[in-house]
Amino acid sequence: MKRLRAQEQHILSLVDADAAALHVTPPRVRFVTASTGPCYEALFNRIELDRATLALPEPLLRIVVAHEVGHATQRKTMLLDFAWTVLSVTALLSIPCIVFATSSDEELWRVSVPGLGFVVAFFACGKFWRARGAKRAAAFELDADAKAASLCGPASALAALEAMAARGHIDAARLDAMRARIASTDKNGLRQ
Ligand SMILES: [Zn+2]
């Protein structure tokens, strides 16, 4: 128990150091028992770390923490994205509500046909939003990886990504991006 407390303190000091280096307010840290993998919650500016992550070797743990603090630098954009999505959905949903509310009973059959068209359009938009959301999320991951690499070095960042990939928390695009980063720094190093 004492060891666990000391480890949690250690994590908090890592978070503070990374946040200072990235010029961002240190996020709070929540230690969870579920094995969902580490994550960042923009709404609460909070990092969640599971026990399996805490058990990682120190160099890997440092990268994971740096990556999660990297997400904290994206907080404003994440929250704006969220607000924008909520606003768009609300605006879109209000269109048929207004049409139905302002139509007289005799006109209702005439609004139900375009209404049906609206439902189809709404689902099409939903599909577009989901695709856009997934794209944004992938960009946030790559950016957080880049920040972790800037704090701990790309080689150790890649090692951490490979370890996390083995646990199924990382997709191949992030590994490829980090390998490309290492290749480009190697090339620049040779040129100098
Ligand atoms: Zn992430």
How would you sum up the global shape?
elongated
Strand portion, in percent? Answer: 5-15%
| Biggest sheet: strand arrangement | 1-3-2
Sheet/helix structural class: mainly alpha
State the order of secondary-structure elements, H for helix, E for strand. Answer: HEEEHHHHHH
Q: Which distinct ligands sit in these coordinates? A: zinc ion
Distance between the termini: 50 Å
Rg, rounded, reads 22 Å
- In the predicted model, the low-confidence regions spanning at least 5 consecutive residues are none
In DSSP terms (H or I, runs of 4 or more residues), the helix count works out at 7
Number of strands: 3
What this model shows, in words?
With 192 residues, the chain is mainly alpha-helical. 76% of the residues lie in helices and 7% in strands. It is built from 7 helices and 3 strands. The longest helix is centred in the last third of the chain and has 45 residues, at 108-152. It is elongated, with a radius of gyration of 22 Å. The N and C termini lie far apart (50 Å).
